[in-house]
């Protein structure tokens, strides 16, 4: 059986995690690789419906996603996790738990994320309607040694996907 793995996309809201994960999924599916996306927003609804955005709630949610990812990866699935996951310590928890873990830092300046604002959340946070927005009131801790860094201000979506894909080949997962 093919070895499963987890690609963990982390970055500021609006940096491009979901966009890249969706394109990568298409590419893996075209190769016949069983792939599952665990996207922050979607998964939160059913896995952590009670959670808010305090550090404790975020950490608990991220740990749950890590455990689900591990189970899927164990059965040969390529798991693409797109989650802000702002705290280094919990990402490291996921890394240790999962083992076959490819951390992708989706890098983008806060300024550009605010301009993109695909969900209108920055606007609401800057207006004071949201009090715990990553990048505005809450911290984002950049990864110190991620397997991959993609810069969505300087690279096209396709280039970002290519970069992740190449790393997966290099690591022997594809
Ligand atoms: N090189 C790029 N890679 C990815 N997205 C890009 C790139 N250039 C521009 N974009 C755009 O940036 C936006 C990123 O939105 P996306 O929903 O993927 O962010 P996200 O990181 O998943 O945010 P959130 O944490 O809020 O879910 C999209 O509108 C996308 O089209
Ligand atoms: Mg997203």
Keywords summarizing the entry:
single chain; 174 residues; binds adenosine-5'-triphosphate; binds magnesium ion
Short description:
It is built from seven helices and five strands. Strands 2-3-1-4-5 form a five-stranded parallel sheet, sandwiched between helices. The longest helix is centred in the middle third of the chain and has 20 residues.
Q: Largest sheet, if any?
A: 5 strands, parallel
Give the averaged pLDDT, no decimals. 97
What is the total domain count? 1
Q: Please give the number of β-strands.
A: 5
Task: State the CATH topology.
Answer: Rossmann fold
* Helical coverage, percent range: 40-55%
Task: Please give the oligomerization state of what you see.
Answer: single chain
Q: Please give the CATH architecture.
A: 3-Layer(aba) Sandwich
Task: Kindly name the structural category.
Answer: alpha/beta
Order of adjacent strands in the largest pleated sheet: 2-3-1-4-5
Strand fraction band?
Answer: 15-25%
Bound compounds, each kind once, are: adenosine-5'-triphosphate, magnesium ion
Structure, described:
The chain has seven helices and five strands. With 174 residues, it is of the alpha/beta class. It has one domain: 3-Layer(aba) Sandwich (Rossmann fold), CATH 3.40.50.300. A five-stranded parallel beta sheet has the order 2-3-1-4-5, sandwiched between helices. The longest helix has 20 residues, at 55-74. The radius of gyration is 15 Å and the shape is globular. The site of adenosine-5'-triphosphate has 22 residues, from helix 1, helix 2 and helix 7.
